[in-house]
Specification:
This protein is α/β, with parallel strands linked by helices. The chain contains eleven helices and eight strands. It catalyses: D-glyceraldehyde 3-phosphate = dihydroxyacetone phosphate.
Length: about 260
């Protein structure tokens, strides 16, 4: 791995948590990471707990993020949350394009590209999720699907927008299923993503953080992080327990030291 890429391990809490849970988990996580491993760390809490989480991790290496954002910055959009609101609550990272948003909310590649642009304009970090379904994987369409999802952003924002951005490759068939791509399978897709970016700009491709997501646990993290193009992880269920999540973070720091 290039020395320019510092690994990023991010927890996606999804629809989980309370104020008490947030306080307990982040307090424990700070203690687990007291030796400050050389790895960027973030947690994407439900947005109602974002400000609390940001206060709890202030002064630590842990940053906060959100799981979604609206494309509008203000106005009559009942129930939505703007990028400025998330920024005001301390968010640095914003997850967009997660398969659950694509599936349950019918978010298109073009709409996700709009969100990417809004996040970049605000000076925050988009975490663009890409990945194929099990049917697409079995049909040999993985690279085509991932390229299409990335190209929507390139066409809308330009390749330079990926400077300082993050891509999370999450095979849909491995999210919350207990199934995980083998390290070799994941590396092949990560290498394809970097090569695809490099066709537009080699320097941008070299510095882009590409995370793996999909049933990442402390038991499989080290093998995944040993791959040259896997720069960290977007972690779901395993991020809801401090010791296990810390073990994943420490595995990333060790593998990329």
């Amino acid at each position: 791995m290039s020395t320019k890429r510092r690994p990023l391990v991010m927890g996606n809490w999804k629809l989980n948590g309370t104020k008490a849970f947030t306080t307990e988990l982040l307090t424990a996580l700070k203690a687990e990471l007291a030796d400050s491993p050389a790895c960027d760390v973030a947690v994407a809490t439900p947005e109602v707990y974002l400000a609390l989480a940001s206060d709890l991790v202030a002064g630590s290496q842990i940053k906060t993020g959100a799981q979604n954002v609206d494309v509008h910055t203000s106005g009559a959009y009942t129930g939505e949350t703007s990028i400025e609101m998330l920024k005001d609550c301390g968010a640095k990272y914003i997850i967009i394009g997660h398969s659950e948003r694509r599936q349950y909310h019918q978010e298109s590649d073009a709409y996700i590209a709009e969100k990417f642009a809004v996040i970049k304009k605000a000076g925050l970090v988009p975490v663009l999720c890409v990945g194929e379904t099990e049917a697409e994987n079995e049909a040999g369409q993985t690279n085509a699907v991932v390229a299409k999802q990335i190209d929507a952003v390139i066409n809308h924002c330009g390749i330079e927008a990926f400077n300082g951005a993050v891509i999370a490759y999450e095979p849909v068939w491995a999210i919350g299923t207990g199934k995980t791509a083998t390290p070799e399978q994941a590396q092949a897709v990560h290498a394809f993503i970097r090569a695809h970016l490099a066709q537009a700009d080699k320097a941008v491709a070299e510095q882009t953080i590409i995370q793996y997501g999909g049933s990442v646990k402390d038991s499989n993290a080290a093998e995944l992080f040993a791959q040259p193009d896997i720069d960290g992880a977007l972690v779901g269920g395993a991020a809801l327990q401090a010791a296990g999540f810390a073990a994943i973070i420490k595995a990333a720091a060790k593998a990329k030291a």
